[in-house]
C-alpha cells in the first residue's frame, strides 16, 4: 500500500533550493545562452555611450554564454579523441578577442550556444518515451499462495505462480486463466478496440486491461520476458539508431574542424616564410581566417528555418519535435497507418438497429440503454450514446442488473427482463426465428452484433462498427497525389482489414499484425522505399513509430505514442499529414539553399583573405551578413 506523503515545513521560512536546482538542470543551457546574449548587447550599447570599463562585460559574455558548449566540446574531445565544432567555435571567438574584436566573438558564441540549447530541448523529448511506456506496467501483483493473497513486486513473479486480477486492473504478467472469466481490453497490444472474452485456458498479455471479471491466472513468463517488455526493448533499440543525415553531419563536422584548425595553424607561420609577410600580417590573417571560417552561417542556415517551420506547424495543429524529422519527412516515399484510432475513430458506434418488439423505437432504445448504462463495456457505452441522440434523455430505472463477463448483461425494466449481448448468449431457436422474421437484414463482416432478448424471444439487434475518420479518405487521396504509397497495418483479421481498405482508399494493407510484426513490416517497407513514415495512436504502435524514419501520432492517442512519435497531429486530422509533407519539402529546399550559400560565402571570404584583400571589419561584415541573410531566408517559413 502506498504511504501517505508528508509535507515538510521549511526551516526559518527560507526558500528551498530544490526548485532552483531543477530549473537549472532543465533550462540551464538556454539561460546561459540568453544571459551571454544580454551581456553582449549591454556591452555594445554601453560602448556606444563611451561608458568606461564596459569591455569587462565581453569576457563575462564569453564565460557565461560559452560555458555549456565549451564543456561539451572538451568532454566530447576527451571521450572520442576527435575534434568538434564546439571547440572550433570557442577557438574562433578567442581568436577574434585576441585581435581586439570582442563583439564578433561574443556574437559567435551566442548564436552557437542558443542553437545548442534548442537542439537539447528537441532531443530530450525522446527520452520521455520509455518512462511513458513504463507507467503502463503495473508495479505490484496479488500473489496467491496457500489460499492467501500477498502484494509483491511484478519483478518477483515467476512462471508457475498464481496471481489474482480484479476488475479494472491492468494485467501484470503474461499468463493463462485458471479460474473465472472476464473481458479484456487488448488495445494496448493489438490495437483492437472491441474487448476480448477470456475464459479458463485462454492467454492474457501483460499491459492489457481487465474490464469486468475477477480471474486467477497462472503466470507463464517472467516480467522481463513478456510482450510488453519486448515493446520497451524495441523502442529503446530503434531510438538509438541515428538517421543517415545525422551520421553524415557528424562525419562532416569532424572533417571540417580538422581542416579549419590545420589551415589556421599553418597560417600562423607559413605565409611569413613562403610569401615574406610580416609576422603581424601573418598572425592577423590567421585570426581573420579563424573568424570567417567559423560555421556560424552554417548553424544559422538550419535553426531559423526549423524554428519557423515548427512555429507554423504548431499554428496549424502539427506539433513537430525537431527539424531532423521534417527533413526526413521530405524524403518519405510510403506511409504506414495503424487502423484503430488512426484511420478509424477507435471507438465502436451504432450504425443501425432493429426493433422487433411491441414497443416503439424510442421506448425500446431507452429500455436497452437503461440496462447498458449499468455496464462498463465499450459496446454498452456506444448503445447508451446512440440512444441519447435518438431517444428521450431520461432513462427508466433498471434493476436486477447482472453482468456476464464476455457475453453481455441482464436487467429488468418494469418487471420485464432483458438479455443484451452476443449471439452465444441467445438461444439457437430464438436466433433462427429472429433471422427468419427479418430476412432483409444483411450483416457486414466488419460489424459487431449485439442482440436483445426478452420473454424467450430475440426482439432486437444493434450493429456496431469502428467508423473511419471523416478526414481519412481525403487525406489518403492527398498523399497519393504527392506520390506517396499508403499501407494499413492492423491487428484485425483479413475481412475487417479489407473492408476498411475499401472505405479509406489505402493502397494496401497487412492484417494480423502484433507489435513485433509491425516493426518487421516497417523494416521491410524501409528496405523497399528507403524512407517510411508510421502513423499510430497506441502503445502497440510505439515500436513501429520508433523504427520508422518518421513517427506520427494522433493527438488523442496514448501518452507513450505521443512521446515516441516525432510529429503529433494535435487535432487528430489526418489531412494535416499532407500539409506537413509539403512544409517539410519547402523547409528542405530552403535549408539546402542556405547551406550552399553559407559554404560559398565562407569559401569566398577565405580566398579573399589569402589574397590579403580582406580586413577584419569587412570579414566580420561578410560573415555576419551571410548569417543574417540565411536567417531571414529561413524566417520565410513562418508563413508556411
Set out the fold topology.
Blueprint: H1 18-48, H2 57-65, H3 67-80, H4 85-98, H5 102-124, H6 128-134, E1 140-145, E2 148-153, E3 162-165, E4 175-179, E5 182-185, H7 187-190, E6 196-198, E7 203-204, E8 209-210, E9 215-219, H8 227-240, H9 244-267, H10 270-274, H11 279-292, H12 296-315, E10 318-320, H13 323-329, E11 334-338, H14 339-343, E12 344-355, H15 361-372, H16 378-390, E13 399-404, E14 408-413, E15 416-421, H17 428-437, E16 448-454, E17 457-468, H18 472-481, E18 485-489, H19 494-504, E19 508-510, H20 515-529, E20 532-536, H21 542-547, E21 550-554, H22 559-564, E22 567-569, H23 575-610, H24 616-635
Parallel strand pairs: 11-18, 11-20, 18-19, 20-21, 21-22
Antiparallel strand pairs: 1-2, 1-3, 3-9, 4-7, 4-9, 5-6, 5-8, 10-22, 12-17, 13-14, 14-15, 15-16, 16-17
Helix pairs in contact: 1-2, 1-5, 2-5, 3-4, 4-5, 4-11, 5-12, 9-11, 11-23, 11-24, 12-23, 12-24, 13-23, 15-16, 18-23, 23-24
Summarize the structure in short.
This protein is of the alpha+beta class.
Structure overview:
The protein is an alpha+beta fold. Among the domains are: 158-221, Calcium-transporting ATPase, cytoplasmic transduction domain A (Distorted Sandwich); 304-344 and 469-584, Rossmann fold (3-Layer(aba) Sandwich); 345-467, Calcium-transporting ATPase, cytoplasmic domain N. It is built from 24 helices and 22 strands. It has a seven-stranded mixed sheet, with helices on both faces. Strands 2-1-3-9-4-7 form a six-stranded antiparallel sheet, with no helix packed on it. It has a six-stranded antiparallel sheet with strand order 12-17-16-15-14-13, sandwiched between helices. β1 (140-145) and β2 form a beta hairpin. α12 (296-315) packs antiparallel against α23 (575-610), α12 (296-315) runs parallel beside α24 (616-635) and α13 (323-329) crosses α23. The two termini are 53 Å apart.
Amino acid at each position: 500500500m502506498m504511504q501517505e506523503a508528508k509535507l515538510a515545513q521549511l526551516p526559518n521560512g527560507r526558500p528551498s533550493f530544490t526548485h532552483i536546482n531543477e530549473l537549472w538542470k532543465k533550462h540551464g543551457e538556454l539561460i546561459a545562452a540568453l544571459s551571454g546574449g544580454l551581456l553582449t548587447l549591454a556591452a555594445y550599447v554601453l560602448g556606444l555611450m563611451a561608458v568606461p570599463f564596459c569591455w569587462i562585460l565581453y569576457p563575462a559574455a564569453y564565460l557565461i554564454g560559452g560555458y555549456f558548449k565549451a564543456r561539451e566540446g572538451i568532454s566530447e574531445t576527451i571521450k572520442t579523441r576527435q575534434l568538434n565544432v564546439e571547440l572550433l567555435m570557442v577557438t574562433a571567438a578567442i581568436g577574434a578577442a585576441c585581435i581586439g574584436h570582442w563583439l564578433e566573438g561574443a556574437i559567435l558564441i551566442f548564436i552557437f550556444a542558443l542553437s545548442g540549447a534548442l537542439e537539447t530541448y528537441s532531443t530530450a523529448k525522446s527520452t520521455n518515451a520509455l518512462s511513458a511506456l513504463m507507467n503502463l506496467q503495473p508495479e505490484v501483483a496479488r500473489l496467491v499462495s496457500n489460499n492467501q493473497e500477498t502484494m509483491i513486486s511484478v519483478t518477483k513473479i515467476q512462471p508457475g505462480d498464481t496471481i489474482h486480477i480484479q476488475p479494472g486492473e491492468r494485467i501484470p504478467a503474461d499468463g493463462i486463466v485458471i479460474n473465472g472469466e472476464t473481458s479484456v481490453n487488448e488495445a494496448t497490444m493489438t490495437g483492437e478496440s472491441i474487448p476480448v472474452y477470456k475464459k479458463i485456458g485462454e492467454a492474457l498479455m501483460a499491459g492489457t486491461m481487465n474490464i469486468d471479471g475477477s480471474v486467477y491466472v497462472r503466470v507463464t513468463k517472467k516480467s522481463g520476458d513478456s510482450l510488453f517488455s519486448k515493446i520497451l526493448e524495441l523502442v529503446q533499440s530503434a531510438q538509438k539508431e541515428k538517421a543517415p543525415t545525422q551520421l553524415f553531419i557528424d562525419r562532416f563536422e569532424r572533417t571540417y574542424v580538422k581542416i579549419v584548425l590545420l589551415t589556421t595553424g599553418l597560417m600562423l607561420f607559413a605565409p611569413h616564410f613562403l610569401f615574406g609577410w610580416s609576422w603581424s600580417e601573418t598572425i592577423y590573417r590567421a585570426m581573420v581566417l579563424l573568424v570567417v571560417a567559423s560555421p556560424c552561417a552554417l548553424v544559422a542556415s538550419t535553426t531559423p528555418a526549423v524554428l519557423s517551420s515548427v512555429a507554423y506547424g504548431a499554428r496549424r495543429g502539427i506539433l513537430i519535435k525537431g527539424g531532423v524529422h521534417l527533413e526526413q519527412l521530405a524524403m518519405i516515399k510510403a506511409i504506414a497507418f495503424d487502423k484503430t484510432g488512426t484511420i478509424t475513430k477507435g471507438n465502436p458506434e451504432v450504425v443501425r438497429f432493429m426493433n422487433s418488439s411491441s414497443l416503439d423505437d424510442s421506448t425500446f432504445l431507452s429500455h436497452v440503454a437503461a440496462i447498458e448504462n449499468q455496464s462498463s463495456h465499450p459496446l454498452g457505452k456506444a448503445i447508451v450514446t446512440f440512444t441519447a441522440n435518438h431517444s428521450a434523455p431520461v432513462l427508466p430505472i433498471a434493476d436486477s442488473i447482472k453482468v456476464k463477463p464476455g457475453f453481455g448483461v441482464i436487467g429488468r425494466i418494469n418487471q420485464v427482463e432483458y438479455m443484451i449481448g452476443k449471439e452465444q448468449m441467445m438461444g439457437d431457436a430464438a436466433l433462427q426465428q429472429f433471422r427468419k422474421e427479418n430476412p432483409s437484414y444483411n450483416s457486414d463482416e466488419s460489424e459487431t452484433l449485439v442482440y436483445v432478448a426478452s420473454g424467450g424471444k430475440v426482439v432486437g439487434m444493434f450493429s456496431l462498427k469502428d467508423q473511419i475518420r471523416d478526414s481519412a479518405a481525403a487525406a489518403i487521396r492527398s498523399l497519393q497525389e504527392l506520390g506517396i504509397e499508403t499501407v494499413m497495418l492492423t491487428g484485425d483479421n483479413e475481412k475487417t482489414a479489407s473492408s476498411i481498405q475499401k472505405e479509406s482508399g489505402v493502397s494496401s494493407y497487412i492484417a494480423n499484425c502484433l507489435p513485433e510484426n509491425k516493426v518487421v513490416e516497417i523494416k521491410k517497407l524501409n528496405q523497399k522505399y528507403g524512407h517510411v513514415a508510421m502513423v499510430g495512436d497506441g502503445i502497440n504502435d510505439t515500436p513501429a513509430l520508433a523504427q520508422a524514419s518518421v513517427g506520427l501520432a494522433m493527438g488523442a492517442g496514448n501518452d507513450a505514442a505521443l512521446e515516441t512519435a516525432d510529429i503529433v497531429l494535435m487535432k487528430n486530422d489526418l489531412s494535416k499529414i499532407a500539409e506537413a509533407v509539403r512544409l517539410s519539402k519547402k523547409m528542405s529546399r530552403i535549408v539546402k539553399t542556405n547551406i550552399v550559400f553559407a559554404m560559398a560565402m565562407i569559401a569566398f571570404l577565405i580566398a579573399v583573405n589569402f589574397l590579403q584583400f580582406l580586413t577584419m571589419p569587412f570579414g566580420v561584415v561578410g560573415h555576419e551578413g551571410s548569417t543574417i541573410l540565411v536567417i531571414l531566408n529561413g524566417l520565410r517559413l513562418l508563413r508556411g
